[in-house]
Amino acid sequence: MKPELTTLKKLCDMLAFMNLPVYSYNDTDDFAILKIHEMGLKMPYLTPTFRPDFYTIMIVLDGEGTLVSGNEVFEVGPGNVFMKRPDVYFSSGWTKMITVYNISFSRYFIEKNLPLGMDDFLEMDNCNGINYLFSKKDISQFEDLCLEIYNEAVSMTAFRYEMISNLLIHILLLIQQRQDTLQIENQNEKNDVIFSAFCRNMDKNFNMLASGEIDFLFRGREHAGLLNLSENNLAKIISKSSGRTINQWINTKLIDEITYLLKNTDKSMKEIAELYAFAELKQFYNFYKKQTNKTAIAVRNDFNESQNELMHIYRGDSVNIRPSW
Question: Is the peptide bond before 44 cis (omega within 30 degrees of 0)?
Fold first, then answer.
């Protein structure tokens, strides 16, 4: 069943259209708070489609429903806080309604009562709606704030909207804080994926060097190209994710590979230098000394002269592990 389409914009008109009570304490089009669970909705309940010209926050303490804002669909349940922007089609369907609060406020209310710092947040990244799940402890803060707002609204005092705006700011800041936390978590997850891909690509590059398939060591520029990122952006991601630079990772891997060959093979210095794409033997010597504070020749000689328990293997002696060998 599709919801009935209307072009109604004002909350009072929408409530009247659904034959729901229009409370006298909501005496302006610029702000309203509703205890939806006390409005006599029979479950399941499907609203018509409206096009509200105000922001809406729905705080679901206990309830289950589906909210459609523009072309985006949001499932809500206990602990969800949903917020939609003005001037988009909106409808909702509910299967459970125990405790749900609805707060509506216009752009004029924002301009008049809310600090300028909230403007960017209220743009909502041009999304039709946002929907966040809060813990029981956190959602209880929303309930307390809703009750305070409700009590101020029904008090009909002359300065109630000044008090309400301060409480509303608190609600918006809680939502913004949750948004910022999730964005950081999402960015960290994305960065971790990129870092893992970088490590895999680095290993692949070294494998291909070792097998002689290529003769070029990838640095930041090449790795960035593989990941469709700018070199500067990749550098920031790797540094933030690992605390090390791209070159530090590559150089550590390169030293490890070279050192293994120095100790465990009879490859000449020239062969090792060529294998890992050093243009000149002198460049190879200088790089190794700079990274390890030891010369490549000294590392090989020290290892060969050591009393390592496996020394006989590196002398060329054969050790039979199994009798059949």
Answer: yes
Which residues make beta-bridge pairs with 35? 101
Provide the pLDDT confidence category of residue 308 given band limits of 50, 70 and 90. Answer: low
DSSP 58-104: EEEEEEEEEEEETTEEEEE-TTEEEEE-SSS-EEEEEEEEEEEEEEE
pLDDT tens per residue, range 149-197: 999 999 988 888 889 988 998 999 899 888 888 777 778 888 888 999 9
Residue 124 DSSP one-character state: G
- The yes-or-no verdict on residue 318 having pLDDT over 50 is no
Closest among 319, 28, 323, 31 to 168, alpha carbons compared: 31
Q: How many CA atoms lie within 13 A of 53 on its CB side?
A: 11
Contact between residue 49 and residue 3 where contact means Cβ atoms under 8 Å apart: yes
Residues 121, 168 contacting (CB under 8 angstroms):
no
Question: How many beta carbons lie within 10 A of that of residue 241, not counting itself?
Answer: 17
Instruction: Name the pLDDT band for 111 (thresholds 50, 70, 90).
Output: confident
Residue 32, SS3?
Answer: strand
pLDDT recorded at residue 325: 41
Cα separations (Å) of 232 from 184, 236, 253? 20, 6, 21
Q: In 104-219, where does DSSP find H-type helix?
A: 107-113, 119-122, 136-155, 160-210
State how far the alpha carbon of 279 is from the alpha carbons of 37, 78, 105, 261, in Å: 76, 65, 68, 18
Q: What separation in angstroms does the CA of 10 have from each of 94, 188, 205?
A: 21, 41, 62
Amino acid at 192: D
C-alpha to C-alpha distance for 238 and 92, rounded to whole angstroms: 44
Residue 92's DSSP bridge partners are 67
